[in-house]
């Protein structure tokens, strides 16, 4: 599913950046993808994906 239509950023790409590249905040996501730099409608959903993925990663590590 596309999270950011303006820059063609999918939820899979976001999860891959978080899990494989260790990205842990929106600033880093914006640097890598330009997400949220045009219309901004995707930012809320991207934050949810970021928070959910990071939380799941910590639960798995415990």
Automatic annotation (TrEMBL):
Record-annotated BFD-like [2Fe-2S]-binding domain positions: 3-51
Keywords from the named record: 2Fe-2S, Electron transport, Iron, Iron-sulfur, Metal-binding, Transport
InterPro entries noted in UniProt: BFD-associated_ferredoxin, BFD-like_2Fe2S-bd_dom, BFD-like_2Fe2S-bd_dom_sf
Cell membrane as UniProt keyword: no
Needed cofactors: [2Fe-2S] cluster
Family per similarity comment: Belongs to the Bfd family.
Record-given protein name: Bacterioferritin-associated ferredoxin
Lineage, uppermost ranks: Bacteria, Pseudomonadati, Pseudomonadota, Gammaproteobacteria, Vibrionales
């Amino acid at each position: 599913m596309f999270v950011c239509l303006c820059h063609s950023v999918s939820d899979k790409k976001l999860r891959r950046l978080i899990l494989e590249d260790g990205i842990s905040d929106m600033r880093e996501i914006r640097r890598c993808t330009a997400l949220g730099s045009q219309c901004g409608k995707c930012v809320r959903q991207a934050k949810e994906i970021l928070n959910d993925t990071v939380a799941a990663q910590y639960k798995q590590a415990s």
